[in-house]
């Protein structure tokens, strides 16, 4: 049977497992650009219920621990038996080694990724219908952190802001992998044979590109970034920058999607917004960008250029008032933080900047020079971007090179529009 059909069949439940509810007005579609997506078969009105996925199908910190508990002699402190189905079956000898106190020290990313890798290796797993439809690593090849991990020299030709973002992600990934290796060796297992770095990368990027916000029980005392879940079927919904579907989590019913403020016609793709994200963010975290000029959240990060110009006293002043770093601009305006930093650069008496910070002054005396400074910075950025684009052209055409060209194109659009403006 086709893996998508198997997934739908699994979600239909059985005498023990609750059924998910999927509106007959939507179906799964597949294309080369956006992968799987959900599409309307007929008219859908505003706020119409579309999908409900019970907790038994959600993969997150709580459900993983609940499934592991079965193979161990510890008792998970959260009682969720009546709303999370755990299949009867054999004890897993690997999980039998897992100590609760050590598991509770893992983050959601570490635990869920480890569990996905181990479950994927089993010929029989409760989660198999879900795991079989997760994207392969090659489907997530748009994420530049993967290029960096593979030491692909083309990574160097990305805009600096994307390189910085991807390097930070890469460090987080490697640190998560190290923690999981330590966890496995602490419980007496051989990590390298059980969980290779490539397998862990696959699971980690699946979590990164498909996780949805869900608060974990307070008793687990986790960090904000641990509050996520994977949601089969709902994770086929692609991103659009404006509001489409709305999502909601019911403690009893599970994960619910309604059409929200947006009516759909037959053939329309169903979207929801992953957040107010720029193309650079979408590329780093999800491996795609929106078509040119379609993303209203695109901005240009000029932080390194401004930081280089600041003198010690000016940096201290900006740090003291929480205005150090994160200097951006869009096609038609610079951010307030950028304005403050550029005014600070021009002022000897820094007390004169405080009325601008407090909203008592518009900072008119600094505006002309600030604008000139930004123009100079943008010309430098344009020159660096042109140089990198020429180098990319010397590479054979590939998916990665096309993404780099698009990322530079986005920068050119903002710089040109701002300079003309
Ligand atoms: C939550 S999944 C959505 C379903 C996905 N298309 C699939 O085939 O499984 C997120 C991934 O979908 C793709 N995606 C989401 N929105 C997109 C869009 N507007 N354009 C292109 N790709 C998109 C990206 O690959 C992203 O990592």
TrEMBL record:
Keywords: Methyltransferase, S-adenosyl-L-methionine, Transferase. InterPro entries: SET_dom (IPR001214), SET_dom_sf (IPR046341), SETD3_SETD6_MTase (IPR050600), SETD4_SET (IPR044429). One of its GO terms (molecular function) is protein-lysine N-methyltransferase activity. GO terms for biological process: methylation. CDD domains: SET_SETD4. Residues 24-275 form the SET domain. This is SET domain-containing protein.
């Amino acid at each position: 049977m086709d893996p998508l059909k198997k997934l739908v069949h699994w979600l239909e439940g059985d005498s023990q497992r609750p059924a998910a509810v999927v509106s007959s007005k939507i179906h799964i579609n597949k294309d080369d650009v956006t992968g799987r997506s959900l599409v309307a078969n007929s008219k859908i009105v505003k706020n119409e219920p579309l999908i409900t996925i019970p907790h038994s199908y959600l993969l997150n910190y709580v459900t993983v621990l609940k499934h592991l508990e079965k193979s161990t002699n510890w008792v998970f402190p959260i009682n969720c038996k009546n709303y999370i189905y755990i299949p009867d079956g054999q004890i897993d000898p690997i999980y039998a080694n897992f100590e609760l106190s050590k598991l509770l020290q893992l983050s959601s990313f570490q635990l869920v990724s480890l569990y996905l890798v181990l479950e994927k290796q089993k010929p029989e797993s409760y989660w198999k219908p879900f795991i079989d439809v997760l994207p392969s690593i090659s489907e997530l090849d748009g994420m530049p952190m993967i290029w960096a991990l593979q030491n692909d020299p083309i990574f160097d030709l990305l805009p600096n802001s994307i390189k910085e973002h991807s390097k930070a992600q890469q460090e987080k990934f490697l640190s998560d992998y190290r923690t999981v290796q330590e966890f496995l060796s602490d419980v007496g297992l051989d990590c390298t044979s059980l969980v290779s770095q490539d397998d862990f990368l696959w699971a980690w990027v699946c979590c990164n590109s498909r996780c949805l916000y869900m608060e974990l029980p307070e008793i687990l005392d986790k960090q904000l970034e641990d509050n996520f879940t994977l949601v089969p079927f709902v994770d086929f919904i692609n991103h659009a920058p404006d509001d489409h579907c709305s999502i909601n989590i019911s403690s009893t019913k599970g994960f619910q999607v309604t059409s929200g403020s947006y009516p759909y016609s037959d053939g329309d793709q169903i979207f929801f917004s992953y957040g107010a994200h720029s193309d650079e963010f979408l590329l780093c975290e999800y491996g795609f960008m929106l078509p040119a000029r379609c993303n209203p959240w695109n901005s240009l990060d000029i932080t390194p250029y401004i930081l280089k110009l600041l003198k010690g006293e000016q940096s201290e002043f900006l740090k003291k008032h929480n205005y150090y770093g994160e200097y951006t601009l869009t096609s038609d305006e610079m951010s307030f933080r950028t304005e403050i930093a550029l005014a600070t650069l021009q002022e000897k008496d820094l007390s004169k900047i405080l009325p601008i910070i407090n909203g008592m002054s518009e900072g008119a005396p600094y505006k002309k020079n600030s604008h000139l400074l930004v123009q100079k910075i943008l010309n430098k950025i344009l020159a660096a971007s042109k140089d990198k684009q020429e180098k990319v052209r010397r590479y054979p055409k590939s998916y990665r090179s096309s993404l780099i060209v698009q990322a530079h194109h986005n920068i050119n659009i903002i710089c040109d529009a701002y300079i003309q403006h």
